[in-house]
User: What shape does this take?
Amino acid sequence: MNTPKRVYLFGNGKAEGSAEMKNLLGGKGANLAEMNLIGVPVPPGFTITTEVCTEYNKLGSAKLREILSDDVHNAIRHIEDLVNMQFGSAENPLLVSVRSGARASMPGMMDTILNLGLNETTIQGLIKKTNNERFAWDSYRRFVQMYSDVVLGLKPESKEEHDPFEVIIDTVKKEKGISSDLELTTEDLKNLVTIFKQTVEEKTGKKFPDDPWEQLWGAIFAVFDSWNNERAKFYRKLNNIPDEWGTAVTVQAMVFGNMGFTSATGVAFTRDAATGENLFNGEYLINAQGEDVVAGIRTPQQITKIGSQRWAKLAGISEEERLSKYPSLEEAMPETYKELFEIQKRLENHYRDMQDMEFTIQEGKLWLLQTRTGKRTGLAMIKIAMDMLREGMIEEKTALKRIDPAKLDELLHPVFTKEGLAKAKVIANGLPASPGAASGQIVFFADEAESWAAAKKKVILVREETSPEDLRGMAVAQGILTARGGMTSHAAVVARGMGKCCVAGAGALQIDYKARTMTVNGKVYKEGDWISLNGSTGQILEGKIDTQDPELSGDFGAVMQLADKYTKMKVRTNADTPKDATVARNFGAQGIGLCRTEHMFFEGERIKAMREMILAEDETGRKKALAKLLPMQKNDFEGIYTAMNGFPVTIRLLDPPLHEFVPQEESAQKEIAEELGIPLEKVKARVASLHEVNPMLGHRGCRLGNTYPEITEMQTRAIIEAALAVKARGISVLPEIMVPLTSTAEEFEMQEDIIRKTAEKVFAEKQDRVDYLVGTMIEIPRAALTADKIAEHAEFFSFGTNDLTQMTFGFSRDDAGVFLPVYLEKNLLKHDPFQIIDREGVGQLVKMGTERGRKTRPDLKVGICGEHGGEPSSVEFCHLVGMNYVSCSPYRVPIARVAAAIAALND
Ligand code: PEP
Ligand code: MG
Assistant: This one.
């Protein structure tokens, strides 16, 4: 068996690896190799592969050290040769850094150790060589500090406690009456090293290793271990990075940015990561090591003159003061700046993407320590992709693939200002149910939300969970916060449809409607107190935070055009009102994939008529109530057809869990009894008779239309009459009537029969016709399994993956919030299946349903209208299954358009 190559060398313009080898060498290792190959100055070193990390996890440190020993020794010799220094030498010691680097960048999540190789002997060499005793002891002090934390595991004793070393340093500074680390003398630093080592031994029982080789092995294994620290695990979960990947370890000759005033260290970006502006920018610190920039101990200065001037203007600093105290690198070290500027250009041209670089200047000599694709905001993502396309740096398909569809969300909702967020305090977390940012005063009741909003107050509606009655309150609130419910809960679905910020299922909230208080971790918030919600992260924050509206630049439209050029699937929207339909049209929706007609009955007079219909004891009573609903529905449909102007409109027949529509409180029951002129007792009895143990599996969907055919008749009449009325105004219409919750072909056929007969009746009455289709939701496993039979009659399928997920997993949509977070935490599930389609299980049913349906009816139109229709990886799945369209809430339409196009490009 061939031994795998475990260690890859680089240095002096040569490298065994390259940028293509990210999987094996990690992003950092691969790019360090590549920079060597393209002539960028990089300190020499070597990378131990990610595969070794996996081996380490299996075999443990003793065995791995045996396996790796020769390779690591030879690799250190390689560095020694190139820099002409010796590891562990008392005369001319080589010091190294040991750094992590996974395939995907995980900034700050794993560990790094600098200045490794120092001990009481080698420090003498460093002093001799640099002729800088203070620098040498400061380097040693930093090394002991970092190594003790990362390798020896010296941590603060409680989460409230400070870093134990910083406590010691603070004590020394206090004793001496100084405030900055830079004022510590050589003697102070020497003492610190001794005290640090004693502290480590006392607290961990481990002696600080003096042998550089021991130090090195300890560091290598600690970096491997850091792949599995809590932060890294959490970050991986958040970003869908597989646990199996592992990290590489890069060992590299140290270069020092803290060797005096001709030395510096910094971070730079080839373009602006926040705005996308094509402007080289970044920050640096003179006489500092990398972690000083990150730790924010000193205020870094801007790299470019223009950046520095902009910064000074914002900070209210005069040009004179700026130049004397905070000069840019461009002004302070013009020659080195010029070199850095050229290198950043070269790197961006080489990688053809915005780069984020780390550099160090050691006594005037520039070294690059890292380059990687820079993380960026949604705004910058779009601008950079389109700018690079226009600059001819990349072609259309690449530009499109540079768009992370989920990130477009940031551009579609208000956002908190940076300054505001920096000051804010997070009080709890819930599910990021609907993105955006909102600040408002707490109200607990929908009607109060309305009256407060009418008085020009900004409110956050806080509810245990929401019900249709809360809709008006939701509509006027800045944001919605619920203690219960998941991503497909009512609050979440409705809020997303409205493009309204919503945090749902925040279990830490204890709501006391009576006292009008919400208690979070012991702290009581009253009605009228200000809170803020970040619907993109699920954070609940104290107080009021300023927000700003998103700007949809011309580049946004250009990206959408590109998406439409390459996509195979159409994108429709889930919309129940002409307003939502118009919003979605403006975002480029090509039709409505789901109009939930029951949502049209939430408001005012309508809910009364709806309740009258539900409470009716017989067909006559129901028909009387339905007659009141007919004109309202017809009117709505006309509005929606008009907004969609010729695009197909799928209207789903009524699918309400009935109990949601009947008043549960006695006062409301009284009101309805008076209105209908029937005794309260009768209303109560009817409400009781409607009670279902499991309403989600109860009298819903087409079960309602088949037991009360007059409902389907009324709705069909409204759909067709509205279509004829709009047609008469010269607007083309294509209604698609959709039967919900079908499980057998027979159920569907009965509904179809009612629909077709009613439509013919209306055509005869109006002496006119329109084309229309009759199809069904596929949201029950049985329907997917018997799709071939159902397709004998159904002209289209729309996968209702909310219910299909619920019924395939047997997870209640309304109750899963209790155990799903635990399942995700314990890795029993990789994702919430209500958010990201479960390809393995539910996906099989979708695939099978589509194939079986098309076997019977090859031109069967297939789409999806569950919440997954706006989630990028689920959209990709829909493309792979061969769907004709996805349908999602209006604000997710642009996301789905780009996701669909990228899926087509990757296919
Ligand atoms: C579904 O079940 O996926 C669906 C779209 O219907 P609803 O969410 O209204 O049950
Ligand atoms: Mg459903």
